[in-house]
């Protein structure tokens, strides 16, 4: 489905990013792990190349809030592959104070985290879209969240020590409208922009939380890091060529 497509995955060395890399390669595409952590990125590249017995994985160090880094990344890929088919905005940069409870979040931390994440998605999309415009086509998929669509279900966090960060709600809701804005702005440029909004991903959360979360779902509950792969491949493929400016939810009904 992705035969020969060159797909850049920001945060490609992370929990979900590695699964996205696998999905691209398994569907005959070329996956570019674009990550700020060079050590983790190169390890992910080498491990996945060995696991999948492929050479169709590359690594490029990328800081999504740096225009210089983005320019260098695009230049490298253009010179090596002669094209870039798609950008997957999947990185999740945040500062050391991210995740505090609402009344403990400072203005500076709130602004910094929105700048790093929502701002980084904007800048990466802007710079790749410039390349796509010259190329004559392109595809941007941003990884959003159900918490960009519905209000937090705070009751599932009770007695767990966890919370749903206010920055996350602002970032993920902003991503949805940013995608719609860009899709409309790129009218006539043959550049698609969509958002894949995920339910919670299992990452060894406390059992109490997992049980409460599952009660809000229809069947499975918390998703595995591989459960978004099919929808991502669809959005990257020609099967979705007329899907543009849309918000697709994968959450086992949590948001209902």
Written account of the structure:
The chain is built from seven helices and seven strands. It has a single domain (6-250), classed as NAD(P)-binding Rossmann-like Domain (Rossmann fold, 3-Layer(aba) Sandwich), CATH 3.40.50. α1 crosses α7 and α4 (107-135) packs parallel to α5. It is 42% helix and 16% strand. It is globular and about 55 Å long. It is α/β, with parallel strands linked by helices and 256 residues long. A seven-stranded parallel β-sheet has the order 3-2-1-4-5-6-7, with helices on both faces.
Poorly predicted runs: none
CATH top level label: Alpha Beta
How much beta, percentage-wise?
A: 15-25%
| End-to-end separation | 31 Å
Outline? globular
Label this structure with key terms:
7-stranded parallel β-sheet, single chain, 256 residues, 7 strands, Rossmann fold, alpha/beta
What's the layout of helices and strands?
Blueprint: E1 6-10, H1 15-26, E2 30-35, H2 38-52, E3 57-61, H3 67-81, E4 86-89, H4 107-135, E5 138-145, H5 166-185, E6 191-198, H6 207-215, H7 229-236, E7 247-250
Parallel strand pairs: 1-2, 1-4, 2-3, 4-5, 5-6, 6-7
């Amino acid at each position: 489905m992705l035969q020969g497509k060159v797909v850049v995955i920001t945060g490609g060395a992370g929990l979900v990013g590695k699964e996205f890399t696998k999905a691209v390669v398994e569907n005959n595409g070329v996956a570019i792990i674009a990550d700020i952590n060079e050590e983790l990125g190169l390890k992910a590249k080498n491990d996945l190349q060995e696991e999948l017995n492929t050479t169709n994985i590359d690594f490029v160090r990328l800081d999504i809030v740096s225009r210089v880094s983005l320019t260098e990344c695009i230049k490298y890929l253009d010179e090596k592959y002669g094209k870039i088919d798609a950008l997957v905005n999947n990185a999740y940069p945040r500062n050391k104070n991210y995740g505090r409870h609402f009344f403990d979040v400072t203005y500076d931390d709130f602004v910094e985290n929105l700048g790093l994440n929502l701002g980084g998605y904007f800048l990466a999309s802007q710079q790749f879209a410039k390349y796509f415009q010259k190329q004559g086509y392109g595809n941007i998929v941003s990884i959003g969240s159900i918490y960009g669509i519905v209000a937090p279900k705070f009751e599932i966090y009770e007695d767990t020590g966890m919370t749903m960060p206010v920055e996350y709600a602002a970032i993920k809701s902003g991503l949805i409208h940013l995608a719609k804005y860009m899709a409309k702005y790129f009218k006539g440029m043959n550049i698609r922009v969509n958002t894949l909004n995920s339910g919670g991903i299992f990452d060894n959360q406390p059992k109490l939380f997992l049980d409460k979360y599952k009660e809000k779902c229809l069947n499975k509950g918390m998703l595995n890091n591989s459960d978004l792969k099919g929808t991502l491949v669809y959005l990257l493929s020609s099967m979705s060529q007329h899907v543009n400016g849309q918000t697709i939810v994968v959450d086992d009904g949590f948001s209902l």
